[in-house]
């Protein structure tokens, strides 16, 4: 009879995410890539200029400052909350489990909406690029399905593989915009360089409200730095640094690039150019100041920009799915981690299948990949993430009122309160200008707006069911990891002001 040693009888330890894999730059690559800077600039910034005039660059600065204020309290809390649940863990600590569970469902739907809709953009961007370069038309559905497989594979691989890939793609898409800026600056623009874009008389105009709506949307996904906490090196420092790097870079870069393209045409002529061909504004500028070859590269890099955004959101969604599976809210199978790549691969497969179902559903219905798949799926996802930011801002002072800490009042009260007011204003701007994002009917826009609060209410109902039917899951929801013992295990609603 063979002898079995104790080592042979012991089960293999369960695979975990790979700790210490990501530095500040790696995490920043994920969140900046999710924002898709080249796609936002070439595809959306011309509309911001058309609506807000030459003061449009200031709108991106204002949005950046607002989100930097939000990041002050957000990152202060990140040093105290070690859960892998990111947004919903923060909201649970400050506002209680029911609100936290509602936020968890909202995050899952919001991030999925932000990613899945973009497969429609991938199809149309590829169509435009192939037509511009080769004069050939390609169907969008095969492109989107191939994209689903590529992104699924990227999420299946290790997180450091994704970080390296996103680093290359991000350098490409920002590099082509830097090339455009260099050409414009070296030639002095159309009529010399002007700072009129930042003058109060051009910033404080009625169209600025619409510009701000676009500008806030351009930062979507920046807060996902905290999702990678479990894989970060020195997360107490890395996560806050990556958050500030991402917000600072996006705010300054967006404002600079929009200002540059205004200089390329001139303050007086850019509005006419944007009205004549908004989609071609950046391509026309780079052709004039750099060359046609650079315009061809920009077409190609828009595709890689979209792919980078998809991969960044896919990785974020996988980690939310993993966290909720570990909580017991989602099926445990979604919490499996690949033994070699150390990735949440089952959650990734599930997300890829969901994306394929939605994409094929829109195709079967004869929907337009841009006007309907992208805009109708992406817009409620964007609103959902804004709502999560608002809830997180409210949760920060509530949390710090309940625990002992050495954080200053600026971080724990002043900045979060200011951020709450500013983010609420941003949500109002987006909702009241939703027709600019969707181009849809009033009925469709109403449905898209109502989806996020409806999902949150469903989450509250799920919380009530968990409390009755699965009390242990409910009580342990968003609890600290076992090794973290310095945080309270019981979380209450924010107490009323004294």
TrEMBL record:
TM region(s), chain numbering: 27-52, 58-78, 99-119, 139-156, 163-183, 203-222, 242-262, 282-313, 345-365, 377-400, 412-434, 446-466
Record's bilayer topology term: Multi-pass membrane protein
Entries under InterPro entries matching the protein: AA-permease/SLC12A_dom, APC_superfamily
One Pfam entry name: AA_permease
Keyword annotations from UniProtKB, A to Z: Membrane, Transmembrane, Transmembrane helix
Residue intervals of the Amino acid permease/ SLC12A domain: 31-471
Cellular compartment(s): Membrane
Protein name: APC family permease
């Amino acid at each position: 009879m063979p002898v079995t040693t104790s080592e042979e009888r012991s089960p293999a330890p369960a695979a975990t995410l790979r700790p210490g894999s990501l530095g500040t730059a790696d995490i920043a690559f994920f969140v900046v890539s999710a924002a898709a800077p080249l796609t936002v600039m070439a595809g959306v910034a011309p509309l911001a200029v058309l609506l807000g005039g030459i003061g449009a660059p200031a709108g991106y600065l204002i949005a950046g400052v607002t989100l930097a204020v939000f990041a002050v309290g957000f990152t202060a809390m990140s040093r105290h909350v070690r859960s892998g649940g990111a947004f919903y863990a923060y909201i649970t600590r400050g506002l209680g489990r029911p609100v936290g569970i509602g936020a968890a469902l909202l995050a899952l739907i919001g991030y999925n909406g932000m990613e899945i809709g973009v497969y429609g953009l991938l199809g149309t961007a590829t169509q435009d690029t192939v037509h511009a370069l080769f004069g050939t038309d390609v169907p969008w559905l095969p492109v989107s399905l191939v994209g689903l497989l590529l992104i699924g594979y990227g999420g299946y691989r290790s997180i450091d593989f994704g970080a390296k890939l996103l680093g290359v793609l991000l350098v490409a898409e920002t590099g082509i915009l830097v090339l455009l800026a260099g050409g414009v600056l070296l030639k002095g623009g159309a009529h010399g360089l002007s700072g009129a874009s930042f003058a109060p008389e051009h910033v404080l105009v009625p169209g600025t409200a619409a510009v701000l709506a676009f500008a806030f949307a351009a930062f979507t996904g920046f807060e996902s730095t905290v999702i990678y906490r479990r894989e970060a090196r020195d997360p107490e420092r890395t996560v806050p640094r990556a958050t500030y790097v991402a917000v600072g870079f996006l705010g300054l870069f967006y404002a600079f690039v929009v200002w540059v393209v205004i200089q390329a045409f001139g303050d007086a002529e850019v509005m006419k150019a944007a009205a004549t061909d908004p989609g071609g504004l950046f391509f026309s500028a780079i052709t004039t100041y750099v060359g046609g070859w650079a315009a061809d590269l920009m077409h190609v890099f828009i595709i890689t920009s979209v792919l980078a955004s998809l991969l960044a959101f896919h990785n974020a969604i996988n980690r939310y799915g993993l966290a909720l599976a570990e909580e017991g809210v989602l099926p445990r199978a979604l919490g499996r981690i690949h033994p070699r790549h150390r990735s949440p691969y089952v959650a990734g497969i599930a997300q890829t299948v969901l994306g394929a179902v939605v994409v094929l559903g829109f195709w079967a219905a004869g929907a337009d990949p841009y006007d309907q798949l992208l805009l109708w799926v992406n817009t409620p996802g964007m609103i959902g993430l804004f709502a999560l930011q608002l809830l997180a801002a409210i949760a920060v002072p509530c949390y710090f009122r309940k625990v002992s800490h050495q954080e200053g009042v600026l971080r724990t009260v002043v900045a979060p309160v200011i951020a709450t007011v500013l983010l609420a204003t941003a949500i109002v701007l987006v909702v009241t200008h939703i027709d600019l994002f969707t181009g849809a009917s009033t009925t469709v826009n109403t449905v898209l707006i109502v989806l996020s609060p409806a999902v949150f209410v469903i989450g509250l109902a799920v919380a009530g069911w968990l409390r009755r039917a699965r009390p242990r899951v409910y009580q342990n929801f968003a609890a600290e990891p076992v090794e973290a013992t310095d945080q309270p295990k019981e979380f209450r609603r924010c107490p009323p002001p004294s």
